Amino acid sequence: MSPENYLHLAALLFTIGACGVLVRRNAIVVFMCVELMLNAGNLALVAFSRMHGNLDGQIMAFFVMVVAAAEVVVGLAIIVMLYRSRHSASVDDASLMKL
Amino acid sequence: MESLIGLLLAPPLLGAAVLLLGGRRLDRVGHWIGTALAATSFAVAVVLFADLLGRDAGDRTLTQHLYSWIPVGGFQADIAFRLDQLSMTFVLLITSVGTLIHLYSVGYMEHDERRRRFFGYLNLFLAAMLLLVLADNYLLLYVGWEGVGLASFLLIGFWQHKPSAATAAKKAFVVNRVGDIGLAIAILVMFTTFGTFAFGEVLPAAAEGGATETTMTLIGLMLLLAACGKSAQVPLQSWLGDAMEGPTPVSALIHAATMVTAGVYLIVRSGAIFEAAPDAQTAVIVVGAVTLIFGAIVGCAKDDIKKALAGSTMSQIGYMMLAAGLGPIGFVFAIMHLVTHGFFKAGLFLGAGSVMHGMNDEVDMRRYGGLRRYMPVTFVTFGLGYLAIIGFPYLSGFFSKDEIIYAAFGRGGAQGWILGGVTLLGAGLTAYYMTRIMILTFFGEKRWQPDAAGNEPHPHESPRTMTIPMIVLAVGSVFAGFLFNLNHAFVDWLSPVTGIAEGDSPVSHLTVSIAATTVMLIGVAIAWLQYGRRPVPDHAPTGRWVTRAARRDLLQDDFNHAAFVLPGNYLTRGLVYVDHKLVDGVVNGTAAAFGGLSGRLRRVQNGYARSYAVSMFGGAALLIAVTLLMRAV
Amino acid sequence: MSTLTALAAETTTSGGEAAQFWILAPIAVAGGLGTVLMRRAVHSALCLAGTMIILALFYLANGAYFLGVVQIVVYTGAVMMLFLFVLMLVGVSAADSLKETLKGQRLLAAACGLGLGILLIAGIGQASVGSFTGLAEANANGNVQGLASLLFTRYVVAFEVTGVLLTIAAVGATLLTHRERIERNKSQREQAEERVRSGEQLPPLPAPGVYARHNAVDIPGLLPDGRPSDLSVNPTLRERGQVREVHEQALADLAAIERRTAEYQGRAVTVTPPRRAGDAAPADTTTGAGDERAHDAERAERDNGRDNGPDAAGEEARR
C-alpha cells in the first residue's frame, strides 16, 4: 500500500467535488460539494502525515476541519438569509451582477 | 474736403442699420428715411464734385485715411478712401440713380408689407457699392465687392416665398463666389508680389514693370474672372437672367446700372496691371466681344421683358468690357458708356417695372401690346431710353457706343477690323431686340389675357413717385451723351486718371457714325418687318434651333450642368462611395470588431456565480499545469 | 479497532490495508458521485455522510485516530445535521432539478474537472512520493497527546486564532439569521382584515380525501360538483408533484350515488355528471406545471359558488 493510492483517491474526490460545485444549482448541494473537496484535502494531509512520520499534517487537517465548520455555519446562515429574501436556494437566482 | 468722403458712405450705412434693426415701428416711414438718406449721400457727392471741379486737373485725387485696419508688420490694411475722377463718376452715378430708384420703389413696393426691409437692403447696397468704388486698396474693395454681392443676394431673393426667387438668389450668390475667388487670388498674388495692395502703390509698381509678365497675366486673368462674375460676362453670365426674379427696382439699380458695372470699374481701375499683361488684355477683349454678341442674341429671343432687358444689359456691359480691354484707347469710353447705360438702362427697367405694375405683374411681352395709349408717360420715357440705347443720333447711346466702335477699329490691323465688325453687328442686334421690345409692348393690338386668378388687367399709368424718376432718367438718357461730348468734357475729366490714347483707326469718326446708324436702321427695319407688320402670335412659335437655344440662354445652364454640376455630382458620389465603403468601412469595421469582441467577452460576465467558478477552476487547472511544466523543464 | 491500530502502526502497509482500501475507496467515490448526481438534496447529504464516514475510516487506518473520531463526531454528526436542518428549512424547490440552465456550463465543468483530475494525478505521479514512514514514533505517547503537544506549543497562535474565528463565525451566523422587527406584530384581527381585503381564501381550505372515498392526504377532496380540488392537498406535496389522482371510477361512483339518492328521495337529479377539473382547464394535477391554472379555475369556481352554491349556504351557516 503506497501513499499514492490515498493521494489518487483524494484527487478523485476533489475533482468530483469541484465538478459538483460547478454543476449543481442548489446552494446547499454546492456547499456539500465544497465539503467534499475539503475532506479530500484532509485525506491527502493525513496521508502525508503518515508518509513523513510526523503529526503536522494531522494538525493541518484539524485546522481545516475547524475552519470548515466555521465556514459551514456562516455559509448556511447566508443561504437561509438568501432563501428568506428570494424564496429560492438557487445560486443562479443570486445573479444581480448580471447585465 | 477730404473728411466729406466718409460722409458719402455714412448715410446709407446708417439707413441700413436703422431700417434693418429698427423693427416694425419704422414700417410707416422707413421708405422715406431710406430715400432721404440716399438723397443726402447724393447731395454730399454733388458738393464733392463741385470741389473737384474747382481744382486743377492734376490735383483731383482726394484721400481719406480713417484708421489702420490690420497693421501687422509689413502687412498694412487701411480703411482709407480715395476719391478721384473715376470714383467721383461712379459716386455720382450710384447716388443719383440710387436716389431716383429709391423714390421709384416708394411707389413700386407700396403694397409690399416688407417694404422697410427692402429699403434697408437698398441702403445697404448703396453703402457697399460706394465702399467698392471709394476704396483706396484692393482689400477694402473686396469688402465692398462682397457687400454688394450680399445685397444683391438679399434683393434677388427678396420675394423669398417664391421658390424661383430663392433659387435665383442662390444661383447668383454661388456664381458670384466663383468670381470672388478670382479676386481673392488676384489680391493674394498682388500682396506676395508687391507686398501691398494699396492702389497708390500697386498700380505704379505694375506700370514700372515691378513684376514679371507671367505674374501680371495671372493677376490680370484673376481680376478678369472676378469681373466676369460680378458683371455677368461669359462664362459666368448665367445668373443675370435669373436675377430678374427680384423686384424691378433692384433689376434697374443693381442688375443694370451699378453693381454689374463693378467689373468694368475693376478693370479700368487696374488698367496699369492690364497694360503690363497684354495677354490678359486680349482675354478681356475676347470676353467682352463674346458677351456682347451672346447677350444680344439672348435678348432677341426672350419674351419676358425683364429677361430681354437683362440680355441687353449683358450685351452692353460686353461693350464696356471690350472697350476696357482696349486699354487707354477705350478706358474713357468704357466709363462713358457705363454712365450713359446706367441712365438709359435704369430708365428702361423702370419703364418695364411700370408696365408690369399696370399689368398685374405680367412679364410676357406677347401679352402686352398697344400700351402706348394707356401709359403715355411710361411710353415716352421708355421710348427715349429706347432711342438712347439703339444709338439714335445725338442721344447719349449714340456718342458712347460710336466711340467704342471707333476705339475697336482703333485696335488696328485684322483685330481692329474683327472687333469693329463685332461691335457694329452688336449695334444692329441692339437695334433689333430693342425695337422688338418696343413694338411688342407699346404698339400693335391688345393681347392682354386674364391671369391665372382670372383678373383682367387694367393698364394704368403709375403713380407720381414712379413716373418722376423715369422722367429724370429719360432726360439723362437724352442729354448725358451730348453733355459729355461737349468740348470733350468727359474725356478731359477722366483722362488724368485712366490715361487716353489715340488708336490707329483705319476709318474716320464720321464713317463709323454713318455705319453704326445704318446698321441700327437695318436692325430696326428687320424688327418692324417681323413684328410691326404682322400680328404677333400669343404663344411663341417654335422657331429655329438658334431661337430655341437663345430662349434657353444659349444653353448656358445646360453647359454649366454638363461641365460642372454633373462631374461634381459624380465626384461627390465617388467620394461618398469611398467614404462609405473605405473610410467608414475601416472605422466601422474596427468598431464592429471591437463591438463583437466585447459582446462575446460580455457574455462571460453573465452574473452567474457558477460561471465564475468555472473560470476559477479553469484558472486553477492552468496554474497547476504551468507549475508542472515549469518543474518538468 | 485494535486491528486498525495495529495496521496503522506498522511502517509498511499490509495486505489487509490494501484490501480495506480497495473495498472502501470505490464506495467513497460512489458516495462522492452520489453527492453530485442525486436529484434531491437530502440524498446528496446522505451520500456525503457516507463518504465522510469512509474517510474517517481511512483516517483511522492512517494513524490519525483523533481526526477519525472528530470526523465522525463533528462532520458527520454536527455539520451534516446542520445541513439537513437547513434543507428542512429551505425545502424543495426547482433548484433541485438537474436540468442545466447555463449554456455550455456542463461541458466547461466537465472539461475543467477532467483537466484538474488529470493534472492532479499527473502531479502526484511526477512527485517522488516514496513510501510511508509510519507514525509509530510520533504516536508513541498516543495520538491525542502527540497532537496536543504540537497544538499547544508550535501551533498555539494558530489555535487561538482559530478559536477567534469560530467565535466570529458563531456571532456572524447569529447576526445574519437574526431578523430585527422594525414594526409591531400584526394582531389576529388585522391579519384577518388584510386577508379579506386581499380577497384570498377566506374559509378554511377544503380537507383532502373528503368525498373522494379516501382518507389519504395526497388525494384531493372533491368539490360539491364532483371535481377534485387541488387546494385541499398540502402545498408541499403539490410543489413536489406528489398529488395522487382521484380515480375515474370513484368519480363515476359518486355520481351514481348522488343519482340513486335523488331517485330514492324522488327529487330531480340536480347533480351534473362529474367532470374532471381538467375539462374546464386542461391541467394535469400530478405535475406542478398546471397547478397555477388549476388554482385559478378553482378560485373562479369558488367565487361563482359563493352566490348560490352549497358553499354559500355553508358559509352562511358558519356565520
From TrEMBL, chain A:
Belongs to the complex I subunit 4L family. The keyword Acyltransferase does not apply. It catalyses: a quinone + NADH + 5 H(+)(in) = a quinol + NAD(+) + 4 H(+)(out). HAMAP family: NDH1_NuoK. GO terms for cellular component: NADH dehydrogenase complex; plasma membrane. InterPro entries: NADH_UbQ_OxRdtase_chain4L/K, NUOK/Mnh_C1-like. Its main location: membrane. Gene3D superfamilies: 1.10.287.3510. The chain crosses the membrane at residues 6-23, 28-48, 60-83. One of its GO terms (molecular function) is NADH dehydrogenase (quinone) (non-electrogenic) activity. It is found in: Cell membrane; Membrane. It holds the Pfam family Oxidored_q2. Keywords: Cell membrane, Membrane, NAD, Oxidoreductase, Quinone, Translocase, Transmembrane, Transmembrane helix, Transport. This is NADH-quinone oxidoreductase subunit K. It is a multi-pass membrane protein. Its EC number is 7.1.1.-. GO terms for biological process: ATP synthesis coupled electron transport. NDH-1 shuttles electrons from NADH, via FMN and iron-sulfur (Fe-S) centers, to quinones in the respiratory chain. The immediate electron acceptor for the enzyme in this species is believed to be a menaquinone. Couples the redox reaction to proton translocation (for every two electrons transferred, four hydrogen ions are translocated across the cytoplasmic membrane), and thus conserves the redox energy in a proton gradient. The keyword Transmembrane helix applies. It comes from the Bacteria. NCBIfam families: PRK05715.1-2 (NF004320), PRK05715.1-3 (NF004321), PRK05715.1-5 (NF004323). The lineage of its organism: Bacteria, Bacillati, Actinomycetota, Actinomycetes, Kitasatosporales. NDH-1 is composed of 14 different subunits. Subunits NuoA, H, J, K, L, M, N constitute the membrane sector of the complex.
Automatic annotation (TrEMBL), chain B:
GO terms for biological process: ATP synthesis coupled electron transport; electron transport coupled proton transport. It holds the Pfam family Proton_antipo_M. Residues 69-119 form the NADH-Ubiquinone oxidoreductase (complex I) chain 5 N-terminal domain. The keyword Ligase does not apply. The chain crosses the membrane at residues 31-54, 89-106, 118-135, 141-160, 181-199, 211-229, 250-268, 280-301, 317-336, 342-359, 371-394, 414-434, 470-490, 510-529, 612-630. Keywords: Membrane, Transmembrane, Transmembrane helix. NCBIfam families: NDH_I_L (TIGR01974), PRK06590.1 (NF005141). Residues 135-422 form the NADH:quinone oxidoreductase/Mrp antiporter transmembrane domain. GO terms for cellular component: endomembrane system; membrane. It comes from the Bacteria. Its main location: membrane. It comes from Streptomyces alkaliphilus. It is a multi-pass membrane protein. It is found in: Endomembrane system; Membrane. This is NADH-quinone oxidoreductase subunit L. GO terms for molecular function: NADH dehydrogenase (ubiquinone) activity; NADH dehydrogenase activity.
